[in-house]
Amino acid sequence: MGPFFYRWSRHRFAGQHFLRWLQIDLLVVAGIAALGWIPGGWISAGAALALIIALFAGHRYWQTKDFVEFIPGEMPLVAPATLSSAAKLPIWASGYFSVEDKHQHFTWLQGFYRTFPNREHALICLNQPTSLWGFGRSPESHKGMWYTFFRPEAVQEIRWGDICFSGERLSGIAVTHTVHLPKQGIFKPARETQKLAYLACPKHEDALAILADLLYDRYAADAASKRSTNGFAKKHPQDTWQKLSG
């Protein structure tokens, strides 16, 4: 149901998204039924109102998941290792994106994952205009390149599993990371909040490489701490990693 709610809330016609038009139509049906103009009377009206509530609840439920289904799996055995700063691994990304002063949640954007020399991770994706039934259009203001950036210290949790959307089931990673939200008006001050980024990989080995890259940051700090003496970390030319599970 995630793809249904995403597409119907993403595409607009005459200023309203399709999901809102469906709810309006059901409200009209409920009113007509309550007046006795169609068979069923109050039963039909109640059924229409129940569908309105179900659509509202279903949309909110899938919206919290960025409209994808994440199926947790057992963490694979990988040796933490850094990606080359030139590496760009193809992904389908879902979650929170930004560009300049704009912020938006998107689902299943095609792009790639990379890590810069300063260890900042990036999801760089393209959002292309789409239509529903040939006349409902996605917002023009959403087209173009969108980005997610997070530094190692912002990562709160890393989970492995399968990510499903619109009939696709790909190996992937769910990353919980901290995001700084700028001030928006009087009632929304600047704040820190947690966001989820879903990284679905067409190639299983790319998902493993991204996982190894993310785990490197987590366990590098632990290794440095274990090598410290009298509170000062000894520099080591090379870390030897054991395979990690969980």
Structure description:
- The protein has helices at residues 2-10, 18-34, 42-63, 204-226; strands spanning 12-13, 16-17, 69-72, 89-99, 102-115, 121-127, 131-132, 136-137, 144-150, 155-165, 168-181, 191-201.
- Helix 2 (18-34) runs antiparallel to helix 3 (42-63).
- The strands form 3 sheets. An 8-stranded antiparallel sheet has the order 3-10-11-12-4-5-6-9, with helices on both faces.
- It contains 4 helices and 12 strands.
- With 246 residues, the protein is an alpha+beta fold.
- Residues 228-246 have low confidence and may be disordered.
Overview in brief:
With 246 residues, the protein is of the alpha+beta class. Helix content is 29%, strand content 35%. The protein has 4 helices and 12 strands.
Note the overall shape.
Answer: elongated
Q: Percent of residues in beta strands?
A: 35-45%
- Average pLDDT value? 85
Please state the structural category.
alpha+beta
Map the helices and strands.
Layout: H1 2-10, E1 12-13, E2 16-17, H2 18-34, H3 42-63, E3 69-72, E4 89-99, E5 102-115, E6 121-127, E7 131-132, E8 136-137, E9 144-150, E10 155-165, E11 168-181, E12 191-201, H4 204-226
Antiparallel strand pairs: 1-2, 3-10, 4-5, 4-12, 5-6, 6-9, 7-8, 10-11, 11-12
Helix pairs in contact: 1-3, 2-3
Overview features:
single chain; 12 strands; 4 helices; alpha+beta; 246 residues; two-stranded antiparallel ribbon
